[in-house]
Design brief:
- The protein has about 200 residues and is α/β, with parallel strands linked by helices.
- It is built from 7 helices and 7 strands, in the order βαβααββαββαβαα.
- Strands 1, 2, 3, 4, 5, 6 and 7 form a 7-stranded mixed beta sheet that branches.
- α4 packs antiparallel against α5.
């Protein structure tokens, strides 16, 4: 039994391989902006679940894999949802606003199996350290915050600037292992079925 990960995220791949699951990786070509524009009044959890589903379904319809997991993450602070910043200017603005404060990182999961498809969202509260201006500039210079939800990671250069997490840290990395286990269980499978392609 082989799981297909519909994501190019190195963090998600690392979470799975660290848990004994070596997935095939196929990146979806989903137009995320179009999906977001079509859901102007959606909550953060509704958005990440819709994006995760779209990614999983796009890959599932174009491959022969029986098991496909799609994920998407967004950071929410003060009721405002933010995805990937893409530019240094946006990352700088966000990191200045986030330092010394907390926000919620939502990760949507959508699993397609021969027994049906199911989805769920994990949410963890992330407490960001009081980064100095120099630390923010050094972090931006790594390029890492430009391509991740909320402009930070916990498993890379950004790790030292996260004071603590309330919730599943794997969900903050991009894929919650307890959620994956639950989704597999709901469809009649065990996470152990996928250990190293067993």
């Amino acid at each position: 039994m082989k799981l297909c990960l519909a994501s190019k995220s190195p963090g998600r791949l690392q979470v799975l391989t660290g848990a004994g699951i070596t997935p095939d990786v196929i990146v979806s070509e989903v137009d995320e902006d179009a999906i977001l524009e079509a859901m102007p009044d959606a909550t953060a959890t509704e958005l990440v679940l819709a994006l995760a589903r779209a990614k999983a379904e796009a890959v599932g319809s174009s491959t022969s894999h029986d098991f496909v997991i799609g994920c998407d993450s967004m950071f929410e602070m003060d009721g405002k949802v933010v995805g990937k910043p893409h530019t240094e200017e946006v990352a700088r603005e966000r990191l200045h606003a986030m330092r010394g404060r907390a926000g919620d990182l939502h990760t949507g999961h959508w699993l397609i199996t021969p027994n049906g498809a199911v989805g769920a969202v994990s949410t963890a509260t992330v407490h960001v350290g009081n980064m100095t201006d120099a630390e923010i500039e050094a972090y931006i210079a790594t390029g890492e915050p430009l391509h991740v939800a909320g402009s930070f990671t916990i498993d890379g250069y950004g790790g030292p600037f996260i004071d603590r997490i309330e919730g599943d840290p794997h969900g903050v990395t991009g894929l919650s292992l307890p959620v994956l286990r639950s989704l597999l269980s709901q469809t009649g499978y065990s996470v152990t079925d996928f250990w190293h392609g067993s």
